[in-house]
Amino acid sequence: MSTKKRSLLKVLVLGDSGVGKTCLIRQFAQHKFSTQYKATIGADFLTKEFILDDRQVTMQIWDTAGLERFQSLGVAFYRGADACVLVYDVTVPKSFYNLEGWKDEFLFQGAPQDPEHFPFLVIGNKTDLEDSRAVSTKKAEGWCRSNGSMTHFETSAKDNTNVEQAFFDVARTAISREIVEDDEIQHAVDIHTDVEPDKIRCCG
Ligand code: GDP
Ligand code: MG
Q1: What is the residue-averaged pLDDT of the chain?
Q2: Domains of the chain
Q3: I want to staple 95 with a disulfide (CB 3.0 to 4.6 A). Which of 26, 88, 100, 140 is the partner?
Q4: pTM of the predicted model, to two decimals?
Q5: Nearest CA owner, ligand 1 atom 18
Q6: Cα–Cα distance list, 172 to 11, 57, 66 (Å)
Q7: Strands 45-52, 55-62: parallel, antiparallel or unpaired by DSSP?
Q8: Which whole-number Å values give the CA distances from 80 to 23, 73, 74, 131, 179, in the listed order?
Q9: Burial class (CB in 10 A: 0-12, 13-18, 19+), 170
Q10: Which atom of ligand 1 is the closest one to the Cα of 129?
């Protein structure tokens, strides 16, 4: 039996329609790129398994499946998310400005505990279209810094540039939080077992 540590992570990928969310997920999970994915990937999530720092990671990556309107995704989509990837297109300024709305929507719908420290990753996609770039790296990094030090990556799902790095980074951040939470739970249980059984009473 393997003694490897295991982590199951639920990662949401949010952002405007057309920024390349489905392509990023497909590139990371299946090493494929197509210019013609339908609006939906036909399922709510794809699963990718990998080893990271001696840990067996199963990442459920949830795509918006063509429902890129605020408030259209439903509770099941947001429930139990361990991390959230916010994607914009480096050639479309509006997709960058809309990140604020996506972030707020996630915090509202997902209502994570400790929202100030929730792991968000911001991805500027389509760096292969450098000639049409309309959102500078500096500007994006500034926004990420002033929004709780979010990590920022620039990727090309088409060229497979930085895609794996970005998803591994989000996995690392989520896992480090998971370990802290496990420690807290362990601690809580220890305190509980310190109480002698006959002193635990209910309803007098
Ligand atoms: P989604 O609506 O956010 O899921 O976007 P898609 O993944 O469906 O991609 C929208 C369009 O952008 C498609 O035509 C893709 O082929 C194209 N696309 C996605 N990623 C890239 C990229 O990195 N570079 C370029 N040049 N096009 C991309
Ligand atoms: Mg899509």
Answers
A1: 84
A2: 5-194 (3.40.50.300)
A3: 88
A4: 0.85
A5: 20
A6: 12, 10, 28
A7: antiparallel
A8: 24, 14, 13, 39, 16
A9: buried
A10: 26
